[in-house]
Hints:
The structure holds 2 protein chains of 2 kinds. Chain A has 1 helix and 2 strands, in the order E-E-H. Chain A has one helix at about 45-55, and strands at about 5-15, 30-40. Chain B is α/β, with parallel strands linked by helices. Chain B has a single domain, classed as Vaccinia Virus protein VP39 (Rossmann fold), CATH 3.40.50. Helix content of chain B is about 35%, strand content about 20%. Chain B contains 8 helices and 5 strands. In chain B, helix 6 (about 115-125) links the parallel strand 2 and strand 3. In chain B, helix 1 (about 15-30) crosses helix 6 (about 115-125). In chain B, about 45% of the residues are buried. The interface between A and B is large, with 34 and 39 residues. Strand 2 (about 30-40) of chain A pairs antiparallel with strand 5 (about 175-185) of chain B, so a sheet runs across the interface.
Amino acid sequence: MAAGFVDFEITWQADVFSGAPQASSAAAFGTQGINFRARKARDEDEWTAALAALTCDIPISPLRL
Amino acid sequence: MSNDQHPEPSLDLEHLRQAIQEEYAAVARDPGRGYHFHTGRRLAKLLGYTSDWLEGIPEDALESFAGTGNPFRMGRLAPGANIVDVGSGAGLDSLIAAKMVGPDGQVIGIDMTPAMLHKAQKSATNVGFSNVVFRMGFAEALPVPDGWADVVISNGVLNLLPDKLTALKEMARVLKPEGCLQIGDILVQKAVPEGAKRQIDLWTG
């Protein structure tokens, strides 16, 4: 999202490395092939709103000094 | 491998690019040699490429295919659309895109490996596709005007880039507002140790 995209979605994932002719580090890191999509925000307002929606409001208890 | 906003400081970008170019030049020249990833028609089938997409695609483009996903499973490309293929390799995805968008659309494939570009251009010429061009370039500085593309596709390339944010910003720059990314890539489900992120051989294999 930091690049200006919204509506990010991973649509598919699967092991695409097993059985390859040469050994790989893929299995050691649980590597999977994926498809993902996203859409460039229509304008600054849409992007800003999408970023704001990611913000978590953390309840803050008054500190006891 | 890194989700930081900037590349690992001790990773030598030029060295990494050279290693990647050598690996994929080998895939272009000798696709049947056997790599740590699948290649060619078998891989395309594994990733869900349909027979009608592959029909008419030269074997040269198909045999050196080394993607990790399938940008077209998220929706066919509309006739007349402008498409950028980042890391176009031997040209399989660019040529399928050229078929989908038809004569009123355009495709720009971009790759940094001369052997792959040569192979892709030769395939496009052989099938007479005049709506696709291949350009030398890097994902972090795409040779495409601002706001040109309706869709950016890429397949198995982002994971090879230390500075993913810059590459994604470039993809956003070349897209029209509300343009789409349709990307095949990889994810790792276990944390990669910091030291491993600086090992060139882990990036390429």
